[in-house]
Write a structure and sequence with these properties.
Radius of gyration: 23 Å
CATH superfamily of the largest domain: MFS general substrate transporter like domains
Number of strands: 2
Order of helices and strands: EHHHHHHHHEHHHHHHHHHH
Strand content: under 5%
Strand order of the largest sheet: 1-2
CATH class of the largest domain: Mainly Alpha
CATH topology of the largest domain: Growth Hormone, Chain: A
Number of helices: 18
Largest sheet: 2 strands, antiparallel
Distance between the termini: 32 Å
Shape: globular
Number of domains: 3
Structural class: mainly alpha
């Protein structure tokens, strides 16, 4: 039972929705706005290794996924508005720290802190939405606005990231969150009621620490497999440590009275299938954004704004696919959609893997591949969410939804690390079999004192290395396609949700 400790009239509900919607927009924006700025960040902070650069993406995803379930429990126990406000403050301060960062290490730490703030904001905001708006048409309209913000926020992030990076500075992709966080803080205090669950118990901070640390160690170990600057013993130690920490997490969850992740949930086959499938799909999908941004800006020297617009078809494809999925789900059920959707998306990713080259055509390859990937993901996501909660008792529906979100984030982080290792390994193999690129000695000497010569040297070096670099990215995209296919196979094999999301054979035997 939920207890609300503050009441607000109907005239304030619109303002409450605005506050909650703005917070959701900030979280969604952060998922795309940074992508367009990655190349500029790499140049200014002198990040030359792909294994390092990917931490700007995975640093956020790891903590967001690792802390998300804890964030939901804290909101239920301490108070949803309280945790919402705390999340907004943490996100805003982390964004300010990211904008001010003068080193790569500080920036990654800021991204990880943003993930913690997001993991507190997201479940608290969604729970508050159900508190503020009464069940029925009122809540349906509120969720409609929420969904529209989620769909449009990604596109806004791409364009805004391009505008800020090109006409201001990459640091503004972080600074822009600060006033939004301040508004969310102020608005929540004024217009959003407090609520908490009377029967909510336990936090399980130890569980959250174990899984987050284990995943971080795994990502570090995988991403640096091909890095000569990291000792082999160190790589092995991180991967071995990750296995121990993750195993300890599951053991701990089995014995603690109030676990972060109730292991009993895995007896529901639809939830299990959706989470394993979501893990694979997230692992394959995340890589496409990083490699395409680098292809656009490092290989073809596109401006950030042009890169942002170049990604817009992805948002369009998601909307089209989600519309089809929502219409078809009541007729054929989610199972065919979570099987067909990943097959469609994987085929688009495979096209990139097979045909991506330094001089590939945007309209001939990148655009159609994006549309195919996005349409497939749009087909998949609504059915995936429906499957995850199908057959799960109502009191566990919130945990089931949060678990699916966490699985996708964690899958994306670990998958990107794995594919980074694949990419670097393939590039190194190609370079080992090719003659060293010829660089003008005079240009190299002038680069030490002349910024223009330094930029020209960087461009010349990138042009010389471009074929091997892009071949590495293409190999990673191919493996990403295989991961997405595997996600579809897993979901098609395990999920038994019926038409309309009705459970069919929900229990695992």
């Amino acid at each position: 039972m939920s207890v609300t400790t503050a009441s607000h009239g109907a005239t304030h509900k619109g303002l409450a929705l605005l506050v909650l919607g703005i917070s959701q927009l900030m979280i969604i924006l952060d998922g795309t706005i940074v992508n367009v700025a990655l190349n500029h960040i790499a140049i200014e902070l002198e990040v030359t290794s792909l294994a390092d650069l990917q931490w700007i993406v995975t640093g956020y995803a790891l903590t967001f996924g690792g802390v998300l379930l804890l964030g939901g429990k804290l909101a239920d126990r301490i108070g949803r508005r309280t945790i919402f406000i705390a999340g907004a403050l943490i996100f805003g301060l982390a964004s300010l720290l990211g904008g001010l960062a003068q080193s790569f290490e500080i920036l990654v730490a800021a991204r990880a802190l943003q993930g913690v703030g997001g993991a507190m904001l997201a479940p608290a905001a969604l729970s508050l939405l159900t508190v503020v708006f009464e069940e029925g048409k009122e809540r349906d309209r509120a969720f409609g606005v929420w969904a529209a913000i989620s769909a449009g926020g990604a596109a806004i992030g791409l364009i805004l990231g391009g505008v800020l990076t090109e006409y201001a500075d990459w640091r503004w992709v972080f600074y822009v969150n600060v006033p939004i966080a301040i508004f969310a803080f102020w608005g929540a205090l004024r217009y959003v009621p407090e609520s908490r669950e009377q029967n909510a118990k336990g936090f399980d901070v130890i569980g959250a620490a174990l899984i987050t640390a284990g995943l971080a160690a795994l990502v570090y170990g995988l991403a640096n497999v091909n890095e000569d600057t990291v000792a082999t013993g160190t790589k092995i130690a991180f991967i071995a440590g990750a296995v121990v920490l993750i195993a300890a997490f599951f053991i701990w969850e089995g014995v603690i009275r109030q676990p972060l992740l109730p292991l009993r949930l895995f007896k529901f086959r639809n939830l299990t299938g959706a989470n394993i499938g979501g893990l694979f799909v997230g692992a394959g999908l995340f890589s496409s954004f990083l490699y395409l941004v680098l292809w656009m800006q490092q290989i073809n020297f596109w401006a950030p704004l042009k890169s942002g617009f170049a990604f817009l078809p992805f948002t369009v494809g998601i909307i089209i696919g989600a519309g089809i999925s929502s219409t078809m789900m009541s007729r054929i059920g989610p199972r065919p959609l979570v099987t067909i959707g990943p097959f469609v998306a994987g085929t688009g990713m495979l096209a990139l893997g097979l045909f991506l080259a330094p001089d590939s055509s945007y309209f001939g390859l990148i655009l159609p591949a994006q549309l195919v990937i996005a349409t497939g993901m749009g087909l998949t996501f609504p059915a995936l969410v429906s499957s995850a909660v199908s057959g799960v008792p109502q009191e566990n529906a919130g945990v089931a939804s949060a678990l699916l979100n966490a699985a996708q984030q964690v899958g994306g982080a670990v998958g990107l690390a794995l594919l980074t290792a694949v990419s670097i390994g393939r590039t190194n193999a190609v370079l080992a079999d090719a003659p060293a690129p010829a660089i003008d000695p005079a240009l190299a000497a002038a680069a030490a004192t002349d910024p223009a010569a330094a930029a020209a040297l960087q461009a010349a070096t990138m042009n010389a290395l471009a074929p091997a670099t892009v071949e590495g990215w293409a190999m990673a995209l191919t493996v990403g396609a295989v991961l997405i296919y595997l996600g579809g196979i897993v979901m098609g094999s395990i999920i038994r949700a019926g038409k309309g999301g009705a459970p069919a054979g929900a229990m695992m035997h």
